[in-house]
Amino acid sequence: MHSQGQDRRVLTCTECKQRVETGWHCPGCQDYDLCINCYNQGPHPRDGEGVAAPAIQRCIQSLRHARQCPQASCQKMKRVVEHTKGCERKTNEACGVCKQFIALCSYHAKHCQESPCPIPYCLNIKQKLRQQEIQYRRQHA
Q: How many domains does the chain have?
């Protein structure tokens, strides 16, 4: 965990064309990569077959690890968590730090089977996803 940042592969999002360090790659498609925000916008036709880019997995592992680690090298992730908890701009999506952090937590929550889960916002995001799924089914029934 304390050797983070060694793999610096940068992806370009297929949808928004922005360069991102963390993203999602579909192994069934040639050169189909998404930033976390675009991935969270809606399902890819092959959704479920894709795998998170190693950088996303490292971020999630780092978050999980930082929650319990006293070392200074893990303080950056702890500061991001604390920032997001107290940020007043996160509700209107004006804060880029919060937007990326919540997108990471959302990606995690879509696949999380843990109960309870140590990742911040996971339970709330899972509940929101369930409510959205119920609404979607009602609208299309």
A: 2
